[in-house]
Amino acid sequence: MTDPLLTELLDLALEAARRAGALLRDGRPADLGVAATKSSPIDVVTEMDIAAEKLITGFLSERRPGDGFLGEEGASVQGSTGVRWVIDPLDGTVNYLYGLPTWAVSIAAEREGERIVGVVEVPMRRETYHAVLGGGAYANGAALRCRPAPPLDQALVSTGFNYVTDVRTHQAAVAARLIPLLRDIRRGGSAAVDLCDVAAGRLDGYYERGLYPWDLAAGDLIAREAGALTGGRPGRPADGGLTVAATQGVFEPLQALLEELGAWHD
């Protein structure tokens, strides 16, 4: 990289994610419980989500005090530098609560609204993913490329479900109609990890309704820099209505099918 700002932001994101990942992995109490709920009684926050976000925002604020923040657990600062950090301190909280390994720390940096750096730390897999806009995607320092595109009926696709009952009931109905048209569907429980798995060639595609900016910010950049296509409904970017990421050749037919099945509404 020739842009010193990109180098600085990447280094800071990697270190912040590493520290938060270590805190979450090594500091998880045996009696971990729910600290709060969000959209429904089963959409939970633990004390470790809150502690990890405080660690990340504190670390970054010390080194770049003028930057803005948008974090899942409440961090919201406008900033004055044109740089904003978009943070999910623990993506896959329910997995973490139950002791399942698929959870991650996700940190992205935006400059004037454009996503330029993404880091996803997956401690239980000992994997660190990162990407810089225009610079490719990497896992533990090795370059990533998504898989060659199979026919849609041979594609392995992941998805996720909302915690609001009515929404996930419709999502389940969409998935039931989609399953016969694919190789199979997976449900990992972490959007950030799913997006990185598309980048790493472990999945041919991923889609989900109801994501927030912090869920997809880093993973979307990593997937795109690995050669995947990402978006939402046809002609739109990935957003809370619908996020789709897939290898080229799978993306367009998958996106069209999701549009037909109404995956973008409740």
In DSSP terms (H or I, runs of 4 or more residues), the helix count works out at 7
Shape: globular
| Percentage of β-strand residues | 25-35%
How far apart the termini lie comes to 43 Å
How large, in whole angstroms, is the Cα Rg?
Answer: 18 Å
Give average pLDDT, whole number.
Answer: 95
Quantity of strands, as a count: 15
Which parts are unreliable, with pLDDT below 50 for 5 consecutive residues or more?
A: none
| Main beta-sheet strand count, sense and barrel state | 8 strands, mixed
What would you say this structure looks like, in words?
This protein is α+β, with helices and mostly antiparallel strands and 266 residues long. Helix content is 35%, strand content 26%. It contains 7 helices and 15 strands. The protein has helices spanning 4-26, 47-63, 93-98, 165-178, 191-199, 213-225, 251-261; strands at 34-37, 44-46, 68-71, 76-77, 83-91, 104-111, 114-122, 127-132, 137-139, 142-143, 156-159, 184-186, 205-208, 229-231, 243-246. The protein has an 8-stranded mixed β-sheet with strand order 4-3-5-6-7-8-9-10, with helices on both faces. A 5-stranded mixed β-sheet has the order 12-11-13-15-14, with helices on both faces. Strands 1-2 form a two-stranded antiparallel ribbon. Strand 8 and strand 9 (137-139) form a beta hairpin. Helix 1 (4-26) packs antiparallel against helix 2 (47-63) and helix 5 packs parallel to helix 6. 47% of the residues are buried. The model has no long low-confidence stretch (mean pLDDT 95).
